[in-house]
């Protein structure tokens, strides 16, 4: 009996994962760049719906701090979500090489995910208006869209839950509410000689 417990304890020690260092715990699921587990985890992780709005806010903050558009776009491209990151990096590289705004933001204008960014950036370059205000508006619009999608999803869940609840409560209502009333009325009618 004791040897069996010792054997199970030894197997449990061998199966347990190795303790993580404090740095690994702080990084969480980020893992290393060459870590295959982190790459597999990235493919299953859902995209943050507010990441684009946060990137627009970050771009507005960089522009308000006085950074040129090319430098601000390059800095934000490192943390922006996939389609926005590529568009910002490409536009930043072209602006740093001296391209005009129409040419620099052309690739971003062809992608539906970044079309509004390209439109605002082109308009800002042509009119000389502040791009930071436009980025703040885009971030607010993105958050509003996410809020509407979440509300629609919650309403849809409320409708979808009514089916299983109806299937659960309808038989109970019939068995406990309707059948006793029908049996009681039938027994009175049949016993009273009304028929």
Automatic annotation (TrEMBL):
Residues 27-46 are annotated as: Disordered. Its main location: membrane. It holds the Pfam family T2SSF. The chain crosses the membrane at residues 169-190. The keyword Membrane applies. The keyword DNA-binding does not apply. This is Type II secretion system F family protein.
């Amino acid at each position: 009996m004791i040897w069996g417990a010792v054997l199970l304890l030894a197997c449990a020690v061998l199966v347990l994962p190795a303790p993580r260092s404090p740095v690994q715990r702080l990084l969480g699921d980020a893992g290393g760049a060459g870590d295959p587990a982190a790459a597999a985890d990235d493919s299953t992780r859902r995209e943050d719906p507010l990441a684009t709005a946060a990137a627009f806010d970050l771009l507005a903050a960089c522009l308000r701090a006085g950074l040129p558009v090319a430098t601000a776009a390059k800095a934000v491209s490192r943390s922006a979500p996939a389609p926005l990151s590529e568009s910002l990096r490409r536009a930043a590289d072209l602006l740093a090489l001296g391209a005009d705004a129409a040419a620099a933001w052309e690739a971003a204008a062809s992608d539906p995910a970044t079309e509004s960014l390209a439109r605002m950036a082109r308009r800002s370059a042509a009119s000389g208006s502040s791009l930071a205000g436009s980025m703040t508006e885009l971030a607010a619009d993105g958050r509003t869209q996410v809020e509407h999608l979440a509300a629609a999803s919650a309403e849809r869940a409320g409708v979808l839950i009514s089916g299983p609840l109806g299937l659960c409560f309808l038989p109970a209502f019939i068995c406990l509410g309707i059948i006793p009333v029908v049996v009681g009325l039938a027994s009175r009618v049949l016993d009273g000689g009304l028929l």
